Amino acid sequence: MVDLKAGARFQSTVCSTEVIVVKGAGEVDLTCGGAAMVAAGTGSIDGAPADGAADGTQLGKRYSNEAGTIEILATKAGDGSLAADGEALVIAQAKTLPASD
Amino acid sequence: MNLMMLLEMAASGLGERTAVGSKTTGLTYAELFDSAQAAARRYRNSGVEAAVLCDESSHAVPIMLFGSAWAGVPYVPLNYRLPSEDLLTLASRVGSAVAVTDETNLDRLASIDAVTTVQQGDFLADPAGGHDIGAEPGDWNMDPDDVAVLLFTSGTTGTPKSAILRHKHLVSYILGSVEFMGAGEDEATLVSVPPYHIAGVAAMLSSVYAGRRIVQLPRFEPHAWIDAVEAEGVTHAMVVPTMLTRIVDALDERGGEPLLGVQALSYGGGKMPRPVIERALELFPITNFVNAYGLTETSSTIALLGPDEHRIAQYSDEPTERARLGSVGRPLPGIEVAIRDDDGIDLPAGEVGEIFVRGEQVAGEYRENGSLLDADGWFPTRDGGYIDAEGFLFVQGRNDDVIIRGGENMSPGEIEDVAMSHPNIRNAAAIGVPDREWGEQVVLVAVADGTAPAAAELEDLIRSRLRSSRVPAHIVFVDELPHNDTGKLLRRVLREQYAHLGDGPAD
Questions:
Q1: How many helices (H) and strands (E) does chain A have?
Q2: Which range of residues forms the domain containing residue A39?
Q3: Distances (CA, A) of B468 to B405, B415, B425, B438, B472
Q4: Mutation to test the A interface, candidates B174, B308, B309, B335, most A Cβ within 10 Å
Q5: Is residue A60 part of a domain?
Q6: Rounded to the nearest 10 degrees, what angle do helices B60-71 and B29-46 cross at?
Q7: Which domains can be identified in chain B, with CATH numbers?
Q8: Which residue in B has a C-alpha nearest to residue A93's C-alpha?
Q9: Which tens digit of pLDDT belongs to each residue from B32-69?
Q10: Which pTM was predicted?
């Protein structure tokens, strides 16, 4: 379980994925490739993404849950896919163009 | 089509939400609607041809923008800091007007017979000016060709021209790029550009339509900007590059703590120095950055580089992706962009030419010389640039700023980008000064980051990346490059300042 605070950075223990939290609330079981993510800089890669959690995480994309309460930006790509409390996180679709004015 | 449609929808869907100001003392959408109606009564009853604003940002801005639309007269925000002579020249071109002004300009504008002045405070206390009839809900004109806004463009040569923006241009821009009521109740946008900047006008319209509260910072100062962000819970902001440079410095002065509350930061109005945006991406680590390219004549944004591309460029090792940070992104839906050579022939991807644009929001029209759109509706931006293979637009700079040396055209941007790739150079401007032998010689005016590198080091860097013809004949270090209030680098000023470094006849 990790505290999903805006600005917090995490890394995967089974692939090269690294992320930063854009939006989040409280303690969440954040996983990548099926394994719990750890605070950035505190772990190393050991093993590989589990089947079913290996769709990959793309650099620069934002991932969110259905409810939209969690949003995570991938700062480094990897083979594992992200999940929060067991729910797979999907690429957040922009509702419309980003506000430019 | 009328701008009032946008406010009417907002008032209807979000009446009690704060439209502008702080949550406790601001105007709600319903109140803004009523104030616009009151202002419309003033304009219609006084029979004026224009609603002039000659003052810094205040609640008068949205009241006048919508009130004038309701009344069917153009809204004309003027640069309140112009010297008297220039201000009076512009103001006398407008016809009869009610001008809301600050104290400084009250007397100046009062000297024009056709203009009736009202002080900002008096206008806000009673937008109707005592008139209680003359405008009813829904009775605004719907002719899409009616003029909504007149903006004087900051020309680089000669007197400014008045760019005409009609209701159809602005409404189509908003409907095409903003989701109605798309903003959550806790969102707030900080507008720190002056009212006479197209981005300021666009921000008003898009924020009202999205339902995002507008917080105004009438006078930009970087620490005041940061304080306003924190005090008002600002989630969105638009800045010109010089503002972002100063904000980044101020944040570093305060210890370099990241600002996490800002959800989206958009910038435009001029070229963003790469070192500044790179540092900003670190100081705002989860913010959605948007680079918006557009002109007054195109109702602001026609292309934008989105948040994903910014973060990909920041974290990627791949050169093409990193290079995208220097791009203005892809054209908005409904906008077509073409790159043409001097003969007007379309150029393929990767080749540099003049940027042409076409679309419903493109006005491209001036009072002084009519429409500049060609027979097929294309507008020449007079900016040079190219589109890459993936459709990303790169703007090299104004064609007027091209340096011509020995018959060769050189884009200042190319030289500036290489100079700025040096870790100790934070900003740079390449200008041409007269030269008897070459026509023009290159002078590089640079702002150092830390210790200024030796001229020879910069010359070698430029020689190795570009051709030797691009190597500046002179390199000058300054503390700051000159910009105007809308964020434009004043190359004309630099050319005048450093003309003496050339040896040719002055222009």
A1: 0, 12
A2: 2-91
A3: 12, 11, 20, 14, 9
A4: B308
A5: yes
A6: 50
A7: 3-219 (3.40.50.12780), 328-399 (2.30.38.10), 402-501 (3.30.300.30)
A8: B308
A9: 999 999 999 999 999 999 999 999 999 999 999 999 99
A10: 0.85
